[in-house]
Amino acid sequence: MRRLIVPTHLLQRAFANLLPGGLLVCLLAACASAPTQPTRWSITGGERAATAAGKLPPGLQLRVTAAPWINQTGFLYSLDYKAAQAVEVYAQNQWIDRPPVLIEDLMMRAYAQARSSPQPARAAGEPRPLALSLRVVEFVQHYASATESEARVAAVATLSESNPAQVRSAMFRAQVPTRTPDAAGGAQAFSEASDQLIEQVFSWAAAP
């Protein structure tokens, strides 16, 4: 059986006879370009946090939340040199999950890594497991100029403990300059800033 090969220009002419010219152009343009998928980022590392977590008792309960405007997958940035209070979202860059989820995952991994080695038995009368909650109040890449930016992370930590029963809270901040003034540089800087922030929180929680 012979294959019938129809030249492309004849097919286009046939469609032109069946469809309005504008619609044909739209169809051809749609076939020529596919929608661009956004780049999705995460935060990695946690070495400093894991070292600090080694001072915490077993059974730590962790919970991380965030201010509503941060509780999204949009990658936030601010052009401080143009409008200091205006926060924007990168058009083609997102987080793989909401920042409080990413930070909680990093805290859990660091704590699990610290507890993976054998631990001494707890003596009678030691405090029961701690409950540590964190509320993220800043997670924004700030631009001082078109070529200079930094990742800023801030959170309020609340620690509930017993024997004796007490509740205390404190604010923590971390900021790390980006290696490149873009989302890729921001994602790397956020990993380092989050690690530093968690290290501060764990050290504070472990202090008597």
TrEMBL record:
Keyword check for RNA-binding: no
Upper taxonomic lineage: Bacteria, Pseudomonadati, Pseudomonadota, Betaproteobacteria, Burkholderiales
Name of the featured protein: ABC-type transport auxiliary lipoprotein component domain-containing protein
InterPro entries the record matches: ABC_trans_aux (IPR005586)
Annotated signal sequence range: 1-34
Keyword Signal appears in the UniProt entry: yes
Natural source organism: Cupriavidus lacunae
Superkingdom field: Bacteria
Boundaries of every ABC-type transport auxiliary lipoprotein component domain copy: 63-201
